[in-house]
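Q: Sequence in, structure out?
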Amino acid sequence: MDREQAKKIIEAMLFVSDKPLFLNEIKNVLEDLDAAAIKEAIGELGKYYEESGRAFRIAEIAGGYQILTDPVLAPWLKKLYKTAGADRLSGPALETLAIIAYKQPASKPEIEAIRGVNVDGVLKTLVEKNLVKIAGRRETVGRPIIYGTTQEFLQYFGLNSLDELPKLDEFHFTENDIELPEHLKKEQEEPKNEISEPTQENR
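A: Exactly. Output:
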């Protein structure tokens, strides 16, 4: 298979896929090419789209590759899809998701302490949409469930990793705005089953 044919096949795969494609998925189809050659072909396709002024780009998202429309065209596409909102997140859901993304792993009491409201329904929605997952239990009193984000979260927001999350100061607030209350901080810091040394008074 020559290079141009390989690029056409990769382009077609990216075009029809509704989710990011991983290198191993592409390699399973193009068995004659190694990972380096596939990455090089994707890079050439991406460069061609940019230099020729096409309406789409190849983005690296959640560890895979996906064809997306150029962000500068967003205002017109929003008009086209202005009636479509089934997958849109509500304000409370976005607030809760932001807290989990920046503070993860985060427990329900921690999220509620920051937001000041009950988040049972919102957490249920985020878990059902597979944007949030149960990441274990906090080793504190009551061992509350803790939550973290998923691969689908990265795909939903077009991120390749959590390192690409916008800096908090871009939203005009700081780490203090999503800081845990003191009593929850102490719970996290308290060592379990700690036995104190007897003092002079109780010897």
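The longest strand covers residues 56-61.
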